[in-house]
Amino acid sequence: MLRSGSRSAVLLAVVVLLATPVLVGTAAADERVGGTVVVEEGETVDGLQATGGSVVVRGTVDGDLQAFAGSVDVAETGTVTGSVEGAAGSVRVAGTVEGDVRVAAGTVDVAESGVVRGDLEAGAGSFALAGTVDGTARVGAGSISLADTARVGGDFVYDGDLTAADGATVDGELREDPSISVSPVPGFAQVADWVFTLYSFLLTFVVGAVLLVAFPGVSRTVADGLRESPARSLGVGLLVLFGVPVALVALFVTIVGIPLGVLGVFLYVLLVLLAFVWGEYAVGAWLLSVADREGRLLALAVGIAAVYLLGRVPVVGGLVEFLVLLVGLGGVGTAAYAWVRGRRGGDADGGRNETGGGADAA
């Protein structure tokens, strides 16, 4: 049987393992997994393999973009120097794709500003082209629309209900082919959104459950902070959010401190991710207390669901998620301070129980 300290170490290793897919974007720019994967304007990545609720390219992908997501958006400022391949609930090209586009989606939209230098193959519930495809386009869709600004440099081969505006230009042959092999999967858009929502929920729940078992003291402190003193919890969260990076920058001033700084950056990113899960747990615990209910796992599930739903509300959602992060960071910071104070006072047992290492606390 593992000692309590060893058990916490093992469980923490499990948390790191489970959180690794979320952290891939920081370790390797060409592979990213998460709720939202974004290549920001001005950013360049060397190819990109992305899995997420949504994938947005506002900068440059130097190579191919391979995506499996609820939505994929190559924004007007975005450029993919290779090809775009994958499956999604919706795919939108408003920027430039230097290679081919081969996608299956609920909806595929090439906006007026969108340019595909190579060929396009799409299977979709609906397809709309208002931009330019320099090569050949092969489209299988329930409804197909060519706007008056649409231009296809090669053939346009399709299977579906086609509506073409008078100004649409097809330099090659426009023909229908019922045998076209890029037919969409029925209901793919709804399935994709459902699958990624479920994936995100389950991953977050498993990570949160491990945290509750490994560090019950910290979990309790985070939840109590929101219920008893939300303003204090938010204040400590702000201090941790901005104070830790300042301390890490100071480490990079000396040669000796650089390795510690690099390790510190990794741990800080991990802390932020885990603190958000703790914050969701705190929200769930508070909601259950209002309903006069108890249960740590139930609180975790309720908190994840509540934050997810509120996070989808425009403007308000971003603020809610930020506050949830501060609550989590505030609780972790408070627990860490109490542990350090206990250690300095010689109360080793108290410090251990506060961080959740004691057997009784679990």
Explained architecture:
This protein has eight helices and 17 strands. It has helices at about 5-25, 190-215, 215-230, 230-250, 255-290, 295-310, 315-345, 350-355; strands at about 30-40, 45, 50-55, 60, 65-75, 80, 85-95, 95, 100-110, 115, 120-130, 130-135, 135-145, 150, 155-165, 170, 175. Helix 2 crosses helix 3, helix 2 crosses helix 6 and helix 5 (about 255-290) crosses helix 6. It is elongated, with a radius of gyration of 25 Å. The protein starts with a helix and ends in an 8-residue tail after the last helix. The model is unreliable at about 1-30, about 180-190 and about 345-360 (pLDDT under 50).
SSE inventory with pairings:
Elements: H1 4-27, E1 31-39, E2 44-45, E3 48-57, E4 60-61, E5 65-74, E6 79-80, E7 84-93, E8 96-97, E9 101-110, E10 115-116, E11 120-129, E12 132-133, E13 137-146, E14 151-152, E15 156-164, E16 169-170, E17 174-176, H2 188-214, H3 216-228, H4 230-251, H5 257-290, H6 296-311, H7 316-344, H8 348-354
Parallel strand pairs: 1-3, 2-4, 3-5, 4-6, 5-7, 6-8, 7-9, 8-10, 9-11, 10-12, 11-13, 12-14, 13-15, 14-16, 15-17
Helix pairs in contact: 1-2, 2-3, 2-5, 2-6, 3-4, 3-5, 3-7, 4-5, 4-7, 5-6, 5-7, 6-7, 7-8
